[in-house]
């Protein structure tokens, strides 16, 4: 199940993603807390909790493909950032994984700068 944009809300679009990325169910499984991202188009919007711009439903093939691509692209960009890191202060890159977990990529190899005989 995914959090999906319902459309028809002027000035905003819901960032569609799997429910487990957005919400954490309570231990009793009755309520949930979490974060649903909404992109606004140049302004402030008010969201009515009784009529949100999202729904929980099964994603279509296009949404699944976008989700797969997004995770893959995030991974590639994090690796590129790690490779470009220079100096001891820039040896790690932090980003969010596909389930919003914190991921740290640490650069483990480097070039030796002193002469060795």
Q: Could you characterize the architecture of this molecule?
A:
The chain is an alpha+beta fold and 117 residues long. It has a domain at 2-59. It is built from two helices and nine strands. It has a three-stranded antiparallel beta sheet. The protein has a two-stranded antiparallel ribbon with strand order 2-6. Strand 4 and strand 5 (32-34) form a beta hairpin. The protein is elongated, with a radius of gyration of 20 Å.
Short description:
By secondary structure, the chain is of the alpha+beta class. Helices cover 24% and strands 27% of the residues. The N and C termini lie far apart (61 Å).
List the helices and strands and how they pair.
Blueprint: E1 2-5, E2 12-14, E3 17-18, H1 19-22, E4 23-25, E5 32-34, E6 38-40, E7 54-57, H2 61-84, E8 92-96, E9 102-106
Antiparallel strand pairs: 1-3, 1-7, 2-6, 4-5, 8-9
Read across the widest sheet, the strand sequence of neighbours is: 3-1-7
Helix and strand element order: EEEHEEEEHEE
Rg over CA atoms? 20 Å
Tally of alpha and pi helices? 2
SSE class: alpha+beta
Calculate the mean pLDDT score and round it: 77
Low-pLDDT ranges: none
Distance between the termini: 61 Å
Helix content, binned percent: 10-25%
Oligomerization state? single chain
- Main pleated sheet: 3 strands, antiparallel
The rough form would be described as: elongated
Beta strands, count? 9
User: What is the percentage of strand-forming residues?
Assistant: 25-35%
